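To illustrate this point, what follows is a protein record of this kind.

___
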Amino acid sequence: MITIEGNIAGHDKKPYKGVITIDEKTGLITSVSKPKKGLKADHTFGKDSLIFAGFGDVHIHAREDETAKQVYKEEYSTAADAALHGGVVHVSAMPNTPNPVVGRKEFTWHRERVAHIDHAVSILNYLGIDPKTKPLGRPGDYFYKLYFGKSVGDLTVTYGSELDPILARYKNQNVSFHVEYEPIVQASAGGKTHSDRRPVAAVNEGLRILLPLIKKYKIKAKLCHWSTGGESFRMIQEYRDLGCDIVLEVSPLHLLFDTSMTDADPSLWTKIQMNPAIQAPEHRSALIEALKDGFIQFIATDHAPHTEEEKFSAFGKFAKDYPGKSNHEIAKAIRAKDEKLYLATCEENGHSGAPWLDTYALVCAWLMREHKFSAQDIARVSAYMPGKFVNPHLKRQFNKKKFGKGFGEIKKGFMGSLTVLNLAKPTLVDRKDLKTKVGWSALEGYTMPGSVEAVFIGGIKQ
């Protein structure tokens, strides 16, 4: 037995001092009790630390598939290493790899690859939806992703008229949605910044088309990386009031950045361009409050690793003037010579997406310090709700592993996987410490108000 003592943070009660006992053979929690005088735990954490059920990220991109075309950016093992560094014990990978995960053959390849790696971090997989796909099983057997609007890759449903016959096949299924209405994105292509090119209207119109179909086909819907408040929240609440099962994710990027920041420093676009785009400060404020009050259920990173060379792709148009130099080197040279041209080019379209797994827990600490999130709030959005999402699928996706009651709670029978957050020890985000294969972070140089003190998986300190 392994014993861990400290301040335990759960979604359903205030932090309390306790001892967690974990069976090393099964990896499951056998008891949670009050500390006893004279009994020393194997691991003890002080007053500045909080012990959470292991954090989970229900939306990442691992890039790996049988083509190996994008493993230069990331692969399952490096994504899992980054997750562990960020205090995350389970992740769910999206299906828009070069060969999309849309059928049993592709899904089987990924599950076999994950089993072969046998990383301590549990990796699950989504199945993709396109106009030709059908569900692989009964409702609840798998979870799916539909891209309503083009993002990264070719797995896209473009027009509203396509949605009805597709979703009719996915009645009662668990479907996560990227929501941006492509005709509005196309009509906005001439906008100055990424936020202009992918405006709030694209999200709201896509949502307006999608919601009646969620209701019609009783879809268990998760709306991914939500980027807007206001009108979209009113529409979502209207359909929740009608009985629709709709939950939302928000990404760290949308919590931390808004267009007031890119207006002040356009060079930020080379780090934080994302689909959907960041929006005005009032949207960011609405997202933070909605996460705190439970309207939004998940912090999900949309960890989307691109190389720095790709993020600076807009500078490729100057390649003839700088022979032999990389995009990143060209950007540096132009900045030294012409700051105005450099900043204008930063606003042009580059690659959308950024790596976030390494800093997941640091964002949680930031929410607690800067926006007064309680320990219960963080336990809910980073541990309990992600656990509820993946737990029904653990048995099907991991044939040879046993998870007891699963992830997300520090209670008897649940996995002894824990994230220990130290709120008194700041972390300077430095690329030398990052585990993601692309080796950079949008938060590089920032000092975040907390640190990952320890991560346990199945009772074993990692």
User: Anything to note?
Assistant: The mean pLDDT is 96. DSSP finds 17 helices and 19 strands in the chain. The two ends are 17 Å apart (CA to CA).
